[in-house]
Each structure stands twice: as structure tokens, then as C-alpha cells.
Amino acid sequence: MPMLFEKIKSEILAHNSYIVGAGGEAAVIDPRRDCRIYASAAGRENMKITKIFETHKNEDYICGSRELARPTGAEILHGSREAFGFGTAVREGETFRVGPLEIEVLETPGHTAESISLLLRDRSVSDDPLMIFTGDALFAGEVGRTDLAGEDRRREMSEFLYASLHEKILPLPAGVIVCPAHGAGSVCGGNISDREYTTIGYEAATNRLLSMDEEAFVEYKMGEQLYEPPYFEMMHRLNRDGPPLIYSLPYLRAYSAREVRSLLERGAQIVDIRSPTSFAGGHIPGTINIWRGGLPLYMGYYLNYEDPIVLVDDFNLDLGPVMRHFVRLGYDNIAGYLSGGFAAWFKQGERMERTGTWSPSDLAEHLDDPSVYILDVREIGHREKEGHILGSHHIYVGYLEDHLAEVPGEKQVVVHCDAGFKGSLAASILQKHGFGHVINLLGGTIGWEAANYPLVKA
């Protein structure tokens, strides 16, 4: 009997969801909010989705189980160690049939208290386990973070995760395929490997965290430094209580330049999604610059869930994927876009702002200039591992707004990141808050090294 197995990836967020099925039935694990893709996959195989599993409540995106259950009538199943406002709680050892497939629940707390893993067997072939859906307990080359329950519970959660890994997951046969909820680039793990697939045996042999004894593991997790975007709190609440249903993707309205100016004056959030060079050349005053690929990573640091969000691009091409980024993070206040692109703004004669740009050689000429303040906005791990530009100061871009008082407003602030994209975001934040002399180092540390200038390691 043919078996359906498909991994559905949400790019940039590095979220993995799965659909498995056989014998006319299918189950979905950790669905995203724009969920039509699962029904389409099941329909191609003449299968009905009957079960939806949430491995944990998730912090980095809106879960799609309620959205998917509405048209399919499928049962939603989740862990029992934290109360949910929807679905049915499941416990250790419970099994569920999906045609000839059997899904067994393993309680694997640690990343969150209610985390579960799902062990899959194809009973039509063998009684041996085939794959395990580990949620955020085990990734390729990494394990889940344990800090999200709060610093006061970090040791407890680290101990829980160690036990979950060594008592529930690692004892499985070496050939069992591991299907985690995230891939490389996710904020839910420190350094997830860029591998599409892995197995229990491969992780046991190569994942350094799995070779640690409990004391070393817990101490490592206690000292782990990971950023927590402020929108995580909203995701936790919505995914616990039940996200609002959207039924369909929102309609984006086209706004004229004058309408955008009026919206901005009334507190709308204007997000310029163009490249750093385009933004530097001219942009709407008071707007922030988050490039398309950075939206899922950084919108949660700087956008609220109340005021309307309006996009500014050059040509407004293919805004569908951009809109999906907002929907997946619960930004149902995405309202529309500037009709005609940024050209409509300057054709209307509206006021513009600019940020400066420097090349590595420009900065090299000013390293000893006391009027220049070099601000490194990379993640602290990148700065410590790769080195930094001599004399630079560090504030992570996501936390910049909370540390503006540390940046001297009277100096020329040269912002840099790895390449220039996060630098442009940081420059836009500074400019929005009244810093008058802001420059983005195009090329960042990558360009700096390519131009044969050194990075200093502490």
C-alpha cells in the first residue's frame, strides 16, 4: 500500500511541517497557518486528513491546526502538560491509527513543558518504528532551546530535555528517521545543521550535545545565549489559547502616496522591503527597512499587532509570499502597499530621507576619526566567532531600540552587519529615532575581509 510522506518547509523561518498518510487517511504534524497546501497534498492522493498533531505550542509562528481543522473536520491532538484552549490532550503511550499507519505519543518535555514526539510505524510493513517527529526536542546537529519557560525554570527544563533525549528518543533503533520541526536558521535552536534528513544513529554518532553527560549538558544549556524576539510572547499566548481563524489570506489594498502619508501621520507602520541600496538612495521619512528575506526574522522585533502595516517596494512584484510571512506570525493588521511603488512617492513630490553608505575603504580611512562611532549589529555569536572591526561597539539589531541611549547622537554613526541588510534595518531604526548622521557599511564584515582589512578577535 503506497504511503504519503511530504515535508513542507516555510522558508526563512526554517519551519518544517509534515503530512503522512496511507489507506485513504492522512495526518498533519505542526501545520502552518496558511494551510491549503496540506489539503492539496492529501487530495492528490485521494486521502482525507483525519488527525492534526501539534508537537508543542510553538513560539516563532502561529500554529495552523485550528485553521486546518475547520475545512477538514480533523481532530487536533497536543501534549497534556499545559492547558490549551482547543484540541484534545494526549499522553505517553497513546496510539492513533491513520489507515495502516500507527502514531505513538512520547512525552518529551524540555523545550516546552507539553512537548511531545510522535513515533510512526507502518503496520502494513513492519512493527518496527520508521520515523519520529521530534518537534523542537532534537534537530539535525542540535537540540532545542530550554530558556523559553523563564530563567527560573531553565535548569529544570534542561534536565527534562536531557531525560527526554536519553530515555525516549536515543534508545530508538539507529535507522529511525528523525523529522524535526525546524531546520538550519531557526531561532529555536543554537546551531542547527543544514541537512534535509537525519537519523537516530547519525545524531547519536555526530551530535556533540548527545555525547555529554547530564551535568555537562545542563551546564551548557544554562549558559547558552540565544535571542528571544519580543513577538514570542504573543505566539505563546495565541498558540495556547487558540489563534483566530482567518479563513482566507487577507486582501492587500493599494494606497496612493497621499493616503500613505496620511496613514503614517496616524501611526501606521510603514515597512520598506527594498534593498539596502534602494533604501539608502531615498525613502519615506519614519519608515523602517526590512528586506524581503529578513521579514520573518525581524518584523517581530519592531512591529506591533494593532496599527495597520503598509509595504513599500519598487515594483510591487509577487507580494503574495511577503503577505504570507506576516500571516504566519499573526500580523493580521497587514493592510496594503504603496500603489505604484516608491516611484509614486517621489512623483507626488513628497519629502524623502536618505541614509549614507560607505565602502570598506571609506571606513578604513576613518578608523581613527573620533567623530565616527562604529556600531556592530550582528548577533553576538558572530562577533565572538568571526571577530570584529577594531574600535567597534556592539548592540544586536533586534535590541537596538532598547539601547538607543548608548549610541552617541552627536557622532557620525557607521552601522555594519555581515553584508549590509541588517545594517540597513539598524540605520532605519536610528534615523527614525532622530539620529541625523547615519551610514550603512555596504558589504559589512564580509566586504571588509574581502578588501583585505582585518577583523580582531577578543
UniProtKB/TrEMBL annotation:
It comes from the Archaea. This is MBL fold metallo-hydrolase. It holds the Pfam family Lactamase_B. The lineage of its organism: Archaea, Methanobacteriati, Methanobacteriota, Stenosarchaea group, Methanomicrobia. Residues 264-354, 368-457 form the Rhodanese domain. One of its GO terms (molecular function) is metal ion binding. Gene3D superfamilies: Rhodanese-like domain (3.40.250.10), Ribonuclease Z/Hydroxyacylglutathione hydrolase-like (3.60.15.10). InterPro entries: Metallo-B-lactamas, Mito_Persulfide_Diox, POD-like_MBL-fold, Rhodanese-like_dom, Rhodanese-like_dom_sf, RibonucZ/Hydroxyglut_hydro. Keywords: Metal-binding.
